[in-house]
Design a protein that fits this description.
10 Kd Chaperonin, Protein Cpn10, Chain O; six-stranded antiparallel beta sheet; globular; mainly beta; single chain
């Protein structure tokens, strides 16, 4: 049997233009309130921003590198599954903040 007969071969993904590929931590699904109440991932919280780790960037992305933690609105995203893993595709302009060691003029806030 040829390798292609067993399934599709692994392919590298290259992001285009100003697109950013991120992966949301699995712990982002369910949350606990301060009082200990479990809030399911399906509970809708309006306008809550989320953190994710950058996996890949397109050639026109200027301020973000792979490995950065970025803050974005869940409404500005496209979901994609690659080899059984879930990722999100964002535009650089839809990212509100970057948490990285190399940010020289930060706000003074730390994660």
């Amino acid at each position: 049997m040829a390798p292609n007969d067993l399934g599709s071969p692994k392919q590298a993904i290259q992001m285009l233009t100003d697109r950013v590929l991120v992966q949301v931590p699995r712990s982002e699904g369910e949350r606990k309130s301060k009082s200990g109440i479990l809030i399911p991932a399906t509970a809708e919280i309006p306008r809550r921003l989320s953190w994710a780790e950058v996996v890949a960037t397109g050639p026109q992305v200027r301020s973000i590198k792979a490995g950065d933690q970025v803050l974005f609105s869940p409404e500005d995203r496209f979901e994609v599954e690659v080899q059984g893993e879930n990722y999100l595709i964002l535009r650089e302009r839809d990212i509100h903040a970057v948490a990285a060691e190399r940010v020289p003029d930060g706000t003074g806030l730390y994660l």
